[in-house]
Design goal:
Blueprint: E1 4-5, H1 9-30, E2 72-75, E3 81-84, E4 88-91, E5 94-102, E6 107-112, E7 123-131, E8 134-144, H2 147-151, E9 170-172
Antiparallel strand pairs: 1-5, 2-3, 3-4, 4-5, 5-6, 6-7, 7-8, 8-9
Region (Disordered): 33-63
Length: 173
């Protein structure tokens, strides 16, 4: 499982890349080949143990970190617009600053904007699910006191009619 955060994901990759580049450049200068077996980024603790390597399926062909799977603009079944970036989910209810996500388990955590009419500055959890080619989402938590409270919420992706806190999931187009 990969939990991506805006503050650790790309910076950790950059740190690891810098460390690997330093090892390669040092080996080139000394004329000694280094296969990275002893270092492997272990000194930095930024790869391997965190599961952010290519073995997890969360990195692309180039080894770069995958972004949030939902990025794009959508209209829901009620006619409301949803614009989702790696940093923010914007819809008719307000704006939500995304702090972490898991594409594999299909959820994200976001802090409600201070200007939101309902539950300003609290925390939300958005879950998403696919039914064939149809995309659905559920804001399973909208009033968490902390990000951890929001993370503790859940929705049932196997019950799109009642699995969102007793309500139907919302279809996105």
């Amino acid at each position: 499982m990969i939990i991506n955060t805006r503050t650790t994901g790309s910076f950790g990759k950059l740190t690891s890349l810098s460390a690997c580049l330093l090892v390669v450049l040092s080996a080139c200068e000394s004329g000694v080949a280094d296969d990275g077996a002893e270092t492997g980024g272990a000194e930095t603790g930024e790869t391997g143990e965190t599961g952010e390597t290519g073995e997890t399926g969360e990195t692309g062909e180039t080894g770069e970190e995958m972004s949030l799977a939902l990025i794009g603009s959508y209209t829901d079944e009620f006619g409301d617009m949803h614009t989702i970036t790696a940093e923010q989910w914007q819809n008719a209810a307000g704006s939500f600053a995304i702090t972490e996500w898991d594409n594999e388990q299909q959820w994200l955590i976001a802090q409600n904007a201070a200007a939101n009419m309902y539950f300003p500055d609290l925390w939300s959890r958005f879950d998403w699910a696919w039914d064939s080619e149809d995309l659905y989402y559920c804001q399973s938590v909208y009033d968490g006191e902390t990000a951890e409270d929001a993370l503790a919420g859940s929705a049932d992706p196997n019950d799109l009619m009642m699995g969102c806190g007793g309500f139907a999931w919302t279809k996105l187009f």
